[in-house]
C-alpha cells in the first residue's frame, strides 16, 4: 500500500517537472526572440510609388517598374511586417513632387530622399536608394465640361409642393474618355430621383447616368440635390386682359375683359398675391383666318406661384 503511494507521488513529481520544463523552455524561447528582434538588421524594401492628386484626364500605366529599392537599417521589430510582404506604398504628389513630360512623370528619387525618409518613419535608417530617377508612364485622355440635366419623378403629398427651385451643389461635370466619345457628349443626365408622398425637405445624392457610354468617366460622379418642401394652397384672382399686336386700323370689342386665374402658392406668400403681379395677354397677330376668338396667355407671374391656370380658355371678339 505504501509502495503504491510512493509511485503515485513520483508520477506526480515527474509530470510537474515536465510542465515546469516546458514553461521555462517557452519563456527562454520568447526571451531569445525578443533579443533577436531587438538587434539591428539591414534589408532591402520595395517602395511602390503611388501618384496622388493626378488630373482626371491622366491614365497611369500599371507598370511593374514603378518601384524604388530602399536599403534600410532597422530593428527586427520594425522589419517584421516585411516578412510576408516586402513592399510599402510611397505616395508622391503629381502637382509638386514630379516633373511632367509628354507621356511620363519624372520623379527625382535622390532629390526627394527626405520625402522617402519621412514616409518610412524614424524607425528606419535609409542607407541607399535606387534608381536615382524614376519614370512613371501615362497616357492622356480627352476631356471637357458639360452641363448636368437633373431627372426626377417626385410625387408630393396632398397640400405640399416645392418652394422655389431645386438647388444643386454642381451645375456641370467633367467627362473624360476617347476624343470621339467626348466630342459627342453635350450634357450628362442624372439617374432619376424617385420620391413619393413627399412632405419633407429634399436632401438627396443622385448619381450621374453614364450607362449609355462604354469608355467614359465622369467627375464628380454624384450630385447633391436640395429643396424646401412646404404646405401649399390654391388661390384665385381676377386679372384684366391686354390685347397686343392689334393693327391701328382695326377696332375690336372683346369680352370678357378679365379672366380668372387659379394658382398654387405656399401659405407664407398667400396673402401677398395681387392682381398687378400677373399679366394676361391676347396676341392679335396669332389669329387664324375666320377665327373669332383670342387665346389668353399668362406672360407674367410671381416666381413663387405654381400650376397657374386660366379658367376662360377663349376670349370672344368682334370687329367694329
From TrEMBL:
The keyword Transferase does not apply. Keywords: Membrane, Transmembrane, Transmembrane helix. The chain crosses the membrane at residues 20-38. This is YbbR-like protein. It comes from Winogradskyella thalassocola. The lineage of its organism: Bacteria, Pseudomonadati, Bacteroidota, Flavobacteriia, Flavobacteriales.
